Amino acid sequence: MLPLRLTVLLLATLFLSTPSLAARCGGDFNTFVAGISADARAAGISPNVISSALGGVQQDMAVLNFDRRQRYTFNKSYEQDVSTRVGPGRINGGRARMQRHAALLSRIEQEFGVPPRFVVAIWGLETDFGKGDMGRLPVFRVLATLAHDCRRSELFQGELLAALKIVQRGDLRLGDMIGAYAGEIGQTQFLPSSYVKYGVDFDGDGHVDLRHSVPDVLASTANLLHTSGFKMGAPYDEGSANFEAMREWNRATIYRKTIAYFADQLVGR
To answer: Is 126 a catalytic residue?
Structure first.
């Protein structure tokens, strides 16, 4: 699953309203962490959160090597992708969850204008409806490593600050900040910046929990699509406005076509 995951918003403009990042990179890793910690304090992150998250953080060369090998494109055809990821078991699993969460999905559809089948399709493709692999790597170790690397340092410095903000808001405990090879978190694999920008507290507990709360997971996924311009009832085939709206979820054309195909299968189209 994870090698096929394309990082959401990888090339997007950073949204955080923080002081301009110094975009330091390379050199001594501990010196770099001290510098990004100062940036975090200037952005309003508490010293306790910074110390807990970044104190003693180590560079992870396996993450760095994976990132340098990774090409953010698919090496499969659309037909190959669909055949390996949208089989009868996953379709039946998606239909069962649409029934189980029918009332929740109806509320989400009314509020965000995104049909249940799209939300459930993304949920299934990302982590097999939350029962699959959400990643096993400490998010702060991953993001500190990628922020230190000079290829996309400013991007991942922004993601690191967003991850600190998630902890400061109380959305996730530090021990729950576990994710994938680019710091993606939760059942639909949000980057930290997307988590902060699109996350919705839909279960009303005062926190956005994209690891454990199905209402938060599904509503946040719908909110991302809605905010990106997805329109209820409009076409979503390749070249349509809705297909482009899904680009905010994932830039790969093949992946978006697979989402649309899976969504159709969930309702027997």
So the answer is: yes
Prediction pTM value: 0.90
Model confidence pLDDT, tens digit, residues 7-52:
444 433 333 334 445 548 999 999 999 999 999 999 999 999 999 9
170: left (phi over 0), alpha (psi -120 to 50) or beta: left
CA distance 85 to 128: 10
Rounded distance between C-alpha atoms, residue 8 and residue 206, angstroms: 25
As a whole number of angstroms, the distance between CA 233 and CA 209 comes to 29
What number of residues does the chain have? 269
Give the CA distances from residue 260 to residues 125, 191, 269, in Å, rounded to whole numbers and listed in that order: 11, 22, 11
* CA–CA separation, 186 and 132 (whole Å): 11
Catalytic residue among 79, 109, 111, 126: 126
| DSSP result, 36-72 | HHHHHHHTT--HHHHHHHHTT----HHHHHHHHH--S
Which 3 state secondary structure label does DSSP give 164?
Answer: helix
